[in-house]
Amino acid sequence: MSTDVTPGASGESVSGALASKEPVSPQAPVSGKMSRESVTVIVTLLVATFVVILNETIMNVALQRLMIDLNVNAPTVQWLATGFMLTMAVVIPTTGFILQKLSTRASFMLAMGLFSGGTLLAALAPGFTVLLLARIVQAGGTAIMLPLLMTTILTLVPMSRRGAVMGNVSVAISVAPAMGPTVSGIILDHFSWRFMFVFVLPVALAALAIGAKFLTNVGERGKTTLDVASVILTVPAFGGLVYGLSQIGGAEAGIVPVIALVVGVLALALFVFRQLRLQRSDSPLLDLRAFNFRMFTVSTLLMVVAMMALFGGVILLPLYLQNTLHLEPMQTGLALLPGGLAMGLLGPVIGRIFDKVGPLPLTLSGSILMVLTLWQFSRLDEASALGWVIALHVLLSLGLALLFTPAFTTGLNPLPPHLYSHGSAIMSTAQQVSGAAGTALLVSVFAVVSASSGLVAGMQSAFLVATVIALAAVVLGAMMRRTEGSAPHGGH
Known about the structure:
The protein is mainly α. The chain has helices at about 15-20, 35-60, 65-70, 75, 80-90, 95-100, 105-125, 130-155, 160-190, 195-215, 230-245, 255-280, 295-325, 330-355, 360-375, 385-410, 420-455, 455-480.
């Protein structure tokens, strides 16, 4: 990440204040330059975020091997993915409070400490139960990292450079998940499943050590108190929603996911009602006043639609490549890698363009490209060339890259500093829930149509539904406007 370096706003170096580990001002510098210490903080968080998100998808192609090695059935082994996702869904809504209560340094040490400890436990796990516990501990650390990174960028990066720096975030959130299946495929071809964690552990420990030595506190800690009732409500609310949505599309779903979904909706309504009451005393667990800012609301909705399309594609494309084009898991991972790399590597370029032209040209062209490529996916069949599928996936990834950086930056820019952590937590929670919803909807369509008309017809129908959903992104993309920063207690 190339970033200009400058002394502090007063003309003196900020290193003295940073070295003392005291919080710096919550305001980003008004010039287009950043201090050397700020660059170090952001790069450290970027590397750590890349590692934890890589780990999130590294397990996907290993489930078949784990069923054999750990002597468990398919529904049981699936809990390694479901448990991780549920933990993320429950912990992320609390990160608004965590990031206000703890310093940057303490939040980072907590996140990477949990992640590293969970990774070590997973590498040494004697059986399935301990491995599941290890994945849950890992997920707790992962849930804190992305909101921490976003909040720190908002605090340290001047408005004129936020697009470019946010573009670097897409390297972590796009390239890492795309590399996960490929990396685990290579490891599983040559080593035991334990080496998936042995591979990640040294990188995680290195990031933890670098952060412990160089990371400094930024922003100001709030005086908020923890509302225990809100924390309890996050479990059935977000856990119920994500579990219900993730399981309801399964072939043997039964009534349990439906009950979980109903409980999740009711608990979410109670959670929202409680947050609105707590806002009167400035003590909500998740401050929903971020939705008072129009561009935050539009950007969050755009992210929801884009994530539904992305997660649906991530699930459906491997099914098509393996069941219809008869690729091996390793070949499937390699076929999907160019799209993930394109999305991540184009992120910084798109971020710089965003800083110059604003969001509208990017989000409008990105949403139209997303609709067109999803429509082309709905026309694939047994005779489609692999090269054409890869090209379409790269184009879809380009469309999503044109959406993600502008949506993140435009949505979070107008928030005042005391809402940075809450806005980041809301966006991250929306990603988790919408990803599960997109997967549930498209897999359900795929399963129903496949049962009566075959796999190809099921895949085509699911992608057609994704195309219709993506039309909403065109409308939302056309509503995007450049946002300016807010004062510490800025208005609407």
